[in-house]
């Protein structure tokens, strides 16, 4: 896919370790009132828990094994991981477990239902977020397109999941199609894929 950036949109670049704290802030703000995180993360200290989780995943999975794309002012981020996703170290898994607190069982129950419906894929668009003050300017498309174009260079299928139906048109414009809608005890999950 060769999608030109929107006029005036910053050029995306791969993130570095130094970028990760700021990118975790962006993702924490973006997911602070998202249906899935509301279901799987306790209300108490939710914003801090989301930030901690995003930082863990970016640092221990996204950067070493996948691709993390951002823009110069850090207002947008998209992380892509290879499939299967590499196992996280036990110390990191303990932190993930702690962040989910008493919602961990709900997460695992929903994950079992969703996992059964995932088609075979090579990559996962694990997370994407745009700072609230920067939304509506094409930055989400910019960082997701950067990852999708890198995947297209090697061929393969990219999968994503969303619990917000408002996201579906955005992903469809980027070439993703809906494979399944999974009902869970919490929010529904749309599984979408894009094949190079």
From TrEMBL:
Database matches in Pfam families: Acetyltransf_7
SUPFAM superfamilies: Acyl-CoA N-acyltransferases (Nat) (SSF55729)
Residue span, N-acetyltransferase domain: 66-196
PANTHER family found in the cross-reference section: GNAT FAMILY ACETYLTRANSFERASE, N-ACETYLTRANSFERASE DOMAIN-CONTAINING PROTEIN
Protein name (record): GNAT family N-acetyltransferase
Species this protein is from: Kocuria aegyptia
